Amino acid sequence: MTPHLVNVVMSGIFHASILFLVAAGLQVVFGVQKIFNLACGSFYALGAYVGVSAVQAYVSAGGPPALFMLPLVLAGLLVGVVGVVVERALLRFVYERDETFQLLLTFALVLMLEDLIRLTWGTSPLSTGGLYLVYGQVRILGAAVPVYNLIVIAASLVIAAGIGALLTRTAFGRIIRAAADNREMAAALGVDMRWLYAKVFTLGTALGTIGGALVIPATAAMSEMGIELIVEAFAVVVIGGLGSMRGALVGALVVGLLRAVAISVYPELEMLLIYLIVIAVLVLRPRGLFGTAATAA
Amino acid sequence: MTGRLVLATALAGVLVVPLVAPAYHVLLMLPFMAYGVALLGLNLLFGYTGLVSFGHALFLGIGAYTGAFLTHRFGVRSLEVIVVTAAVLGALVAAPVAALCVRYVKIYFGMLTLAFGMVFYTFVLKFYRLTGGDEGTPYLRPSLLGFALDGIPKTDYLTGPYYYYSLAVLILASAVMWRVVHSPFGLCLKTIRDNPAKAETLGIGVRRYRWYAFMISAVYASVGGALLGAPIGNVDPTLAYWTHSGNIVFMTLLGGFASFFGPILGAFVFIYLEDFLKSLAPSSWRLIFGALLAAIVIFAPGGLMGLFRRARPLEASRA
After folding, report:
1. Helix (H) and strand (E) counts for chain A?
2. Which of A130, B51, B263, B301 could pair covalently with B39 via S-S, beta carbons 3.0-4.6 A apart?
3. What does the H/E/C string look like for A206-220?
4. Does the pTM exceed 0.80?
5. Can you give the pLDDT at residue B168?
6. Computed over its alpha carbons, how large is the radius of gyration of chain B?
7. Would you call A83 helix, strand, or coil by DSSP?
8. Which residues of A touch B112 (CB under 8 A)?
9. Is residue A294 pLDDT above 70, yes or no?
10. Do A105 and B297 lie within an 8 Å CB cutoff?
11. Which of A73-87, A276-290, B32-46, B88-102 has the lowest mean pLDDT?
12. Contact, A128 vs A68, CB < 8 A?
């Protein structure tokens, strides 16, 4: 029983650390720009595909397999620059609009990115082959856990700490928090909102793409992965509270672990359970566990 | 006056389509009319009450599954019974859902409706013994007004009796909705949309009215779902997926949410454009649709109807 339980918990935490990265991207964008970015799942998918391509190119160029994470992470981060393109080319036109229109614009992005991915990489699933187990496995309480999973969990924690430090200890972080709190006041005090929005959206996008790149050795890149992940990331931010980083971390753990437990115990309940919790949270505590935003009419 | 002329022309056109157009185009009109009914309801919530639901595919799903279950499992083939049952079931499900959702507005309303839609989606997807899972449930050919109509070929059935039946439902639904939005009740909804605080001080029970609007829109969407499922002949969970909810909001915006007939026009353009693009560019029609949606959001938030009547003060710019 114990090895099985460890497996369930470890796969839950692995999934949670990926979910956290995507949800953190969603949160930072919502916090500052007040846009709920439905396309964060598509950025995740984009990161995954670019990650696969980078690793495949790296392997065929004869790079040592043990260092495959280098091109993977680099590609995941670099493709985050699509964020600045999207922000400058599309989002900046709708900041003054009703949030419905902002939501629909990100939905338009979902549609466009889905086809762009299909056109570029085709429709069949892509994977990085056997690199997943190149670092071997360790035994924890009798269960075999891939070392790669532990690396990703650690990387996610490091990124979480990094974001925390960025937000609380740097001038840029203070500007982000000030703008999230009161954008008119921040603008009046001399913050160039255009650049801030571009930077914040790029940061949010890069968090999504790096999440996608990191997940890829463990699974295959599929064109539906984006729209499937957005509904989980959505659950994470609702449970944790919109706009809150701590909320994203806790929400990701809740969703990741619940999902893993449900899959092993009663697969029919998987997403149903998560969504029932989402509804319960929205009804009982609409600001989520850590959110602060006022929600009532 | 021109409005009436356009409407009469459109109606005459729709009436003669089965007589003059190839069967292929007539068949495309069927989802258009089904969506038309559903969008009339969605827009009562979106355009008139100011609440955007990102989970209305839930009710399309309820309507379609009602038809599938009644025809396939219970041997009930009468479309009248199906439509009424779909409306009743839609209302039963909507009553608690609406009561919870109308406590919120804007993005939180959208998120809550999306969450309810996904609950329904995962339910029909996962409980395959009951629903057939991702393979879906067959929706057998319904009888119309007591006539079984099983003897005639499928295309003749759909382009003939079923076409006019759908059209009659759409016209009836439009007439009822027209009365609703032009009644004092409709005026109350618009007041709530534009200024909820003022509506409250005027003695309008804001939440109660939002609940009414949600209920009506859910019933409309369920009826639309019942009509949508029959021509396909099989009902599967993708009908209730969140992207489908997004698509129907897209249709509404495409036609113009600030006008009564805008959403119906949006459904028409969406269906034909989708069909055209799918045959023209099978692998990139979503890309084109996405770009189109982005262009509408950025440049023409009033949709096609908004473009037609630029001269009038644009209601859409209230956003």
Report:
1. 12, 2
2. B263
3. HHHHHHHHHHHHHCC
4. yes
5. 93
6. 19
7. helix
8. 279, 282-283
9. no
10. yes
11. A276-290
12. yes
As a whole number of angstroms, the distance between CA B162 and CA B170 comes to 12
Tell me, what's the pLDDT at B300?
A: 84
All structural domains of chain A, each given as residue ranges with its CATH number in brackets, are 2-284 (1.10.3470)
**Average pLDDT for B305-310:** 76
Q: B118 CB near a chain A CB, below 8 Å? A: yes
Residue B86 pLDDT > 60 = yes
Helices (H), chain B: 2-20, 23-43, 57-72, 79-101, 106-126, 128-131, 154-157, 163-181, 184-194, 196-201, 206-232, 242-255, 262-280, 285-299, 303-308
CB-CB under 8 Å, B111 with A110:
no
Identify whether the C-beta of residue A176 lies closer than 8 Å to the C-beta of residue A31: yes
Q: Any idea where the domains of chain B sit in the sequence?
A: 25-241
Q: What's the pLDDT score for residue B132?
A: 79
Question: What number is the average pLDDT over the span B290-303?
Answer: 88
Report pLDDT for B200: 85
d(CA A31, CA A198): 14
Instruction: Report the b/e string of A118-157 with b at 16+ CB within 10 A.
Output: beebeeeebbbeebbebbeeeeeeebebbebbbebbebbe
* Cβ contacts of A90 within 8 Å, gap of 6 or more: A105, A109, B294, B298
Name the token pair of B221: 């969407």
- Residue B295: strand, helix, or coil: helix
Nearest CA in chain A to B51: A100
Q: How far apart are CA A150 and CA A279, in angstroms?
A: 32
- Taking only residues 181 to 220 of chain B, the set having a beta carbon closer than 8 angstroms to any beta carbon of chain A reads 196, 206-207
Residues 6+ apart with CB under 8 A from B93: B58, B59, B62, B218
A91 → chain B, closest CA residue: B298
Distance CA A190, CA A209 (A): 31
- What per-residue confidence (pLDDT) applies to A145? 86
Q: How far is B218 from chain A (nearest CA, A)?
A: 19
**Does the beta carbon of A285 lie under 8 angstroms from any beta carbon of chain B?**
no
**In what helix (H) or strand (E) does residue A15 lie, and over which residues does it extend?**
helix A2-33
C-alpha distance from A134 to closest chain B C-alpha (Å): 35
Q: Which of residues 135-174 of B touch A (CB under 8 A)?
A: none
Please state which of the ranges A130-139, A286-295, B34-43, B154-163 shows the lowest mean pLDDT: A286-295
Across the interface, whether the CB atoms of A115 and B284 are under 8 A apart is answered yes
CB contact under 8 A, B246 and A107: yes
B289 touches chain A (CB under 8 A): yes
